[in-house]
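During the reporting period the student researcher (J.K.) took over the structure-prediction task from the postdoctoral fellow and processed the backlog of single-chain submissions. One of the processed entries is reproduced below for the supervisory committee.
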Amino acid sequence: MDIDVSAEEPPAQAAPEPPGAPPQAAPAAPPSSPQALAPSSGNGPFAPHPHTDAYTVLQYTPPSQLISAGDHVLAHVRPDAASPGVVMFGPGVALTITGRVSRGFADDWYAIAWNNQTAFIRQQDATPGTATAPPPTAAHVIVPPRAPPKPPEGTQDSAETTNAPPPVASGPFELSGVRWVSRPSRRDYERAFPQRALNSGQSGRVTLDCTASGSGGLDCSVANELPRGYGFGNAALNLSRQFRIAPTTSDGRPVAGGHVSVPVEFRAN
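J.K. obtained the following structure tokens:
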């Protein structure tokens, strides 16, 4: 770090004003710079913005097709791993790269187009290749019904309405903006890989339909299994115990009773 050490001379003492002279107004202070207005900490109106708020997306087209490189590639709202997730890709999904963001210190991101919006993934999560998996579909969010308005105080049913529990959604609703707390490791995938498929060198893909509990655990069932007959569905259900999400979404909604689709990919190579 460069340190600028300046040796300033002490300010000259102002000459005394002659007797009877009217007091002179102090000169106006120069406008403060934005840095001077922003305190180092606090939540006031001039609180500094975090580093993640400032970034520049440069137009970029890769020389070859890029695909998702990992089992669970999470795209974020901003080029920041702490920002909310938008969608999770399995391995081998073709990515539409529209730009890139360089944050320094190997913190580089790609801007991608997905579901008519822009999201961001780390550059190390993309690799040249040919797509082997379809992209996930956009989740449709169903808003739970709102609680009925409270009647005025003094009515016959006011006490019952006050003590009544909040209404519950009539059925599972699709979750968006989930925050993943834990996911299976590569070691977990190796242990769960069906032996018959492993002996045959067969890869597989499973989509789990999961309902979230209030603590973030997932109760899952097999929605789709390809190919059938190798035991990939049961293997994915065993792995579902390792998936856990935060009790609330990125915008503060509770996940209890919400529905989320989880892709599980088994690769034999």
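The committee noted the following: DSSP finds five helices and 15 strands in the chain.
J.K. will present the remaining backlog at the next meeting.
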